[in-house]
Design goal:
289 residues; alpha+beta; Ribosomal Protein S5, domain 2; Alpha-Beta Plaits
């Protein structure tokens, strides 16, 4: 019997998030350019006689237990495979970077490998709109309610600082506070970007439509973006998802690391990480323990 698998669950970052409509059933329609970070959680799966979930790591305290946890709900889609799951939580919970969805997608990738089946994500949409894009962990354009995922190849990587001011925000409350829900999408065909500066210039003309209502509900988000933008060398600062995590883009990994170190000193109570954004499909592939 195999010892088990280790699966990295990279953070999901919305470089753009355009809210383009709302369906009759209440679901919002989105158009979002999504990338992944080399910062994330780790899931370990070990074959066992029954399902169990142990959560550890610096962000373990806020993780929902039992079947409230998306990772365990995904695991139960495999009734013939039982495993002891260990989730090492590095990402803040409910913070706009897809932590729960990334964890669920990591469990799915691991169990699909154990079961010898293709990691098709269509079955996961009803558990969470962000899970399908997190399964391959590739740079992608996400449309509809999350079911339309188109890989975007050739994006330059971005060196970033991720910062969360430790404020909880309610995603439904933020969507409810949107004054316009029929905003313009991104262009039908995305341009080619030859470097990070060109990508940032284009991103500056795009939006996260949830940022203004999120900042109205939690002014700390505006402070976080302003603080990132004021750091030396920051090319662009924006909120990811529905917040409260924000990202600042820098020209080099060294600049991002230095900026993160400075920010962590000035804001010791914030969650702050330096990282790289792009496609993380290789590091997200299950590895034998």
């Amino acid at each position: 019997m195999m010892a088990g698998l280790r699966v990295f669950a990279p953070a999901k970052i919305n470089l753009t998030l355009h809210v383009t409509g709302q369906r009759a059933d209440g679901y919002h329609l989105l158009d979002s350019l999504v990338v992944f970070a080399d910062v994330g959680d780790v899931v370990q799966l070990r074959p066992d006689t029954a399902w169990s979930l142990l959560v550890d790591g610096p962000e373990a305290g806020s993780v929902p237990p039992g079947d409230e946890n998306l990772a365990l709900r995904v695991a139960r889609l495999f009734p013939r495979i039982a495993s002891a799951l260990t989730l090492t939580k590095e990402l803040p919970v409910a913070s706009g970077i897809g932590g729960g969805s990334a964890d669920a997608a990591a469990v799915w990738r691991g169990l699909c490998q154990m079961a010898g089946r293709d990691a098709d994500a269509n079955a996961l949409l009803e558990l969470g709109a962000d899970i399908p894009v997190c399964v391959p962990s590739r740079s992608a354009r996400m449309q509809g309610i999350g079911e339309m995922v188109t890989s975007v190849d050739g994006l330059p990587h971005l060196d970033v600082v991720l910062a969360n001011p430790r404020v909880a925000v309610s995603t439904p409350q933020i969507f409810k506070a949107l004054t316009h829900k029929d905003n313009a999408p991104m262009p039908p065909v995305l341009p080619e970007f030859f470097d990070a500066a060109a990508l940032c210039n284009w991103l500056a003309a795009q939006r996260n439509d949830l940022q203004i209502p999120a900042e109205a509900i939690a002014p700390q988000i505006a402070e976080t973006c302003q603080t990132l933008a004021a750091l030396s060398g920051c090319l662009l600062a924006r909120m990811s998802g529905s917040g409260a995590t924000c990202f600042g883009v820098f020209s080099t990994a060294e600049e991002a690391t230095e900026a993160a170190d400075r920010l962590a000193i000035v804001q010791p109570n914030w969650w702050v990480r330096a990282g790289r954004l792009g496609g993380m499909q290789r590091v997200a592939a299950p590895q034998a323990l």
